[in-house]
Design a protein that fits this description.
The protein is of the alpha/beta class. It folds into two domains: 76 residues, TusA-like domain (Translation Initiation Factor IF3, 2-Layer Sandwich), CATH 3.30.110.40; 368 residues, TIM Barrel, CATH 3.20.20.210. The protein has 13 helices and twelve strands. The strands form three sheets. Strands 7-8-9-10-11-12 form a six-stranded parallel beta sheet. A four-stranded mixed beta sheet has the order 1-2-4-3, with helices on one face. α11 links the parallel β9 and β10. α4 crosses α13 and α8 packs parallel to α10. About 2% of the residues have low confidence.
């Protein structure tokens, strides 16, 4: 039972303990709490030691907000000790958690560099005017439940992967029925298009966005901004770095390996790009314990992405797509140092020319030495809400030079929505770059007519040539697992309309 007054001692022994020192809840303590409490079973006990007086009020408030139970607390001079149950103590199973030694700070996983990359394996060629989704596909209700149960430790890894396999079968089947030339696994195993990496990398962890609100200068104002942007803060999770990043297991290789058992079509896999990950993972209150600055963090992000891409290509991935939607945030969201949800909500940025050069250099460091024809980059202007007025707007003019300097073979671009401006701006891109033309709007419930798609893509063919053009939606259909923009039926219908249009265009332009 929760105690409302200080106790002489805790009524139960903690499963895990850590010392937060003088950190307050707005300066990293909540992230350390989440780091230690998430691995516990329901009912597991965490002891938090602190010398910071503000924690007396802030920690009970956090417990009430997150549904964790404050069992007891002790005050002895400046030292405080709080015993918190994950969820409710009544959920505890007998013998569920062994008692561990108290730890100070964060235990880090040893990072082992991958010295020799495997060679790329052959993959089916991607024909001109091919149709493909960007990545995400709406998850079935039971898959969403499995995602949450897995993150909360209530569903074991094997059961989660078996459930996800079923969801991937449905996603791939829908794309094949629609007539896609290239398929993805629909990102069914991911909680979102980018933050999922935190559950796969060493010394990185997913943190609920609501836990991070104390890190901003005005949490109440930031909450209002999120509501205005139609951002589901309670459903969004954010990657936090607690030590040197490592890749002791694959990030997405297992996704490709299973998808290849379902089809002989070319398979595309999406990874969050290095600039996006650097901007989302760099938080001074936590990541500066492992890295001197964000540039040092970026070096490790580049390393783990290169290791992953090498393994993806060796597994037969036809196209590896780096997602860098935050490039639009750099030039369209306002002045430097203005925070934006587009990049994980809590990131800050320098002036646009500096950020664009940083992003270009990071992407090129990741792609160096890999076959360009099997590397793509995708960007858009925001895909967390179906309300077009909430997303960023602006044409590609301030971005086209940077995009042209990226060492990738394909750009997959948002081009259907009026928010993206005129296609003609892209004619200065290198002639050997393929252009994935956003030809349907994943935010809208109505399905575009085949005639309108043909007209839109014909315009692109006139600008770039049929050999360089691919057809895609503007973005994924369910960037965030809990916030799909459309139903799976609508997604399939839109992809089918693209496939019908490409059959017409291939015949018209004599594309075999």
């Amino acid at each position: 039972m929760t105690q409302t007054a200080p106790a002489a001692q805790h009524p139960h022994q903690a499963d895990v303990s850590f010392d937060g020192g003088d950190l307050d809840c707005g300066n990293g303590l909540l992230l350390l709490i989440r780091k230690h409490i998430d691995p516990l079973d329901r009912g597991g006990l965490l002891e938090i030691r602190s010398t910071e007086i503000s924690v007396d009020e802030d920690l009970p408030a956090w417990c009430r907000m997150t549904g964790n139970e404050l069992i007891s607390f002790i005050k002895q001079d400046k030292q405080r000790s709080f015993l918190v149950a994950k969820g409710k103590f009544a959920e505890r199973r007998a013998g569920a958690m062994p008692v561990r030694e108290a730890v100070s700070g964060v235990a880090l996983i040893e990072v082992k560099p991958m010295l020799n990359f495997p060679a790329p394996a052959p993959a089916p060629a991607i024909r001109p005017l091919s149709v493909m989704g960007i990545g995400s596909w709406p998850r079935p209700r039971w898959m969403l439940q499995a995602v949450h149960e897995h993150m909360e430790g209530r569903l074991d890894e094997a059961s989660f992967q078996a459930t996800a396999d079923d969801a991937v079968r449905l996603s791939v089947g829908a794309q094949i029925r629609a007539g896609a030339d290239v398929v993805t696994d629909g990102e069914q195993r991911r909680d979102s298009y980018s933050s999922f990496v935190a559950s796969r990398l060493d010394n990185c962890q997913l943190i609920p966005l609501t836990d991070l609100l104390p890190l901003v200068d005005d949490p109440e104002e930031f909450e209002r901004e999120l509501r205005a942007l139609d951002v589901p803060a309670g459903d969004v999770r954010h990657p936090a770095v607690f030590g040197p990043l490592g890749r002791s297991r694959g990030i997405a290789v297992h996704e490709v390996e299973f998808a290849r058992t379902l089809t002989d079509l070319p398979i595309k896999i999406a990874l969050p790009g290095p600039y996006l990950l650097t901007r989302t993972m760099w938080m001074e209150c936590i990541s500066d314990r492992a890295y001197a600055n964000r540039e040092d963090l970026a070096k490790d992000i580049v390393r783990v992405l290169r290791e992953e891409i090498a393994c993806l290509l060796a597994a037969g991935t036809a196209l590896v797509q780096l997602d860098e939607p935050v490039l639009s945030e750099v030039v369209f969201s306002g002045p430097a140092n203005q925070r934006s949800f587009m990049c994980g909500a809590l990131s800050a940025k320098a002036d646009s020319p500096i950020e664009l050069a940083f992003a270009r250099d990071l992407v090129n460091a990741v792609t160096a030495g890999f076959p360009r024809e099997r590397i793509a980059l995708h960007m858009c202007r925001g895909n967390w809400t179906a309300d077009e007025t909430k997303a960023l707007s602006g044409d590609y003019q301030p971005l086209v030079d940077t995009l042209g300097q990226m060492q990738v073979g394909t750009l997959l671009l948002e081009l259907c929505t009026p928010r993206s401006g005129e296609m003609e701006i892209l004619t200065s891109l290198p002639g050997d770059m393929r252009i994935g033309i956003g030809a349907c709007n994943q935010k809208h419930a109505h399905v575009e007519s085949v005639e309108s798609i043909v007209k839109h893509v014909e315009h692109a063919i006139n600008l770039f040539g049929a050999e360089r053009v691919l057809l895609t939606p503007d973005c994924g259909f369910a960037t965030f697992a809990d916030n799909p923009l459309n139903s799976d039926a609508t997604a399939e219908a839109k992809l089918a309309a693209l496939a019908q249009a490409t059959r017409i265009l291939r015949e018209r332009h004599h594309i075999a």
